[in-house]
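Re: the request from the purification team.
They wanted to know what the chain is likely to look like in 3D before they choose a buffer screen. I agreed to run a prediction and write the result into the notebook, where they can find it.
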Amino acid sequence: MPIAEIERHDNRQLQNVANILAASKKVVVVTGAGISTNCGIPDFRSENGLYDLIQSQHEQASVCASATRCTIPRSQSPPSRFPGKAPLISATSNIKGKDLFSADVWNDPVSTSTFYSFIASLRKKIYDEVKQSSGTHRFIRTLRDSRRLVRCYTQNIDGLETREGLCADLDRGKGNRARFSKKTIKSANVPSSTLPGGKSDGGCEVVQLHGDLQRLRCSLCRTTCAWDEEGREGLLLDGKAPVCQMCHAQDQERRDRGKRGTKIGSLRPNIVLYGEENPSEDIIGAISTHDLRLAPDVLLILGTSLHVHGLKTLVKEFARAVHARPAAKGKVIFVNLTKPAESVWKGFIDYWISMDCDQWVSSLRRHRPDLWPVQTPLDLELLKTKSRSPKNLKPDEGQHKFTFEKENRMKNSDSPLPSKFKQHLCASSRPPLEAVLNESPHTKIFSTQDTAKSTQPPTPFPSGRRNRNPTTPLKRPRDDEDKITRPFKRMKKDILEIWQD
């Protein structure tokens, strides 16, 4: 089946895609650099992208390195990191930006220095200049809050998803599959990123396939540490690699015991280059296998050109799982300005939306605003009211919640009353029944001796209706009660009318 192309002005097809997302229950999202370009972070392959920027920086570094090499004698030049192996990238060669993100960058000191300084400057720009995430990042959070998000697999290393409260910790694991059940969705009042082990636990909600810029990793022992400690960021900006303190401590400990020292590794950014293995590939493989078994009904691909081989394999596996849904209800939606190759993705991608990702999210919100759940302030107040215990109520709060029967039962019981209930009863604004009955000709039914001994007003006659709100007036007797000739019924009727007035 050929890929259906949808332009930005095709409202009918855009509405169709919006309806597919609104009817979905389990959505897998795959993102690339295109969802962060509106935040000021360039992508890789477009004009003025990262590859062009890296190439210009490398040319400047090569010129400086050539000038330095001419002034330093050969005997004083630093030894090669890989003795006996010729570098694949020459210091004076015209390197491409794509080559700087490959594993061959470690074979040449100039390329390594350029890589360190470029990644450190990119991280500094993201943390200092990018103030907020994009609309696409917020849409992914909306899918999570509406209990639709299975997982987000991203190629990005900027970590902007975490600013929206999405969990990117692989140690959280796969999450609880019960979060998609109807019972859990109806009973849950908080986003799915809850405490680990709960029924609504989403686990690691964002899987960063190419690493992140939050930590540094030792090239030898793979221990991770923070960027900002011990001046590491300044060294990386200068193109130098900090020393791993874990390896250094182990080496020093052996030397103190009179043993031979061990090799000390250097710290590098915790990102995965082309040709390298992901240190967390076992965890990522277990998570992706779990998500395939959940049988998602929509695969959403946003802002990526799908050129990386590993990502191609992952997307095709999820596309097969989505299309395996009964009655061909599963759909694969691709949103990017670049058209996918028909020869590669025919039969895998159903819709290609030729739009910017943020523009498409805005269009989606116009077509289906119900995808964005809204919790009004009134709902929040109701949740707070329900969560409050009667023990926390003040004496003047909720006086209308006590009925006549509860008051009389507390007054006539032998057990001592709590002080706040006594204050509540004393603060009642209703007039004493004794003062009202003194004006009635039928007060002889009450004993004056018992009234004098009692310190509380006598109990009124029951109204015949349980759990009645005391703030509402009593109902008048029915018309057929006027025909009752029994004396005590007439006296009861008169007293009720006096009490009502």
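For the purification team: The longest helix spans residues 50-71.
Please add any questions underneath this entry.
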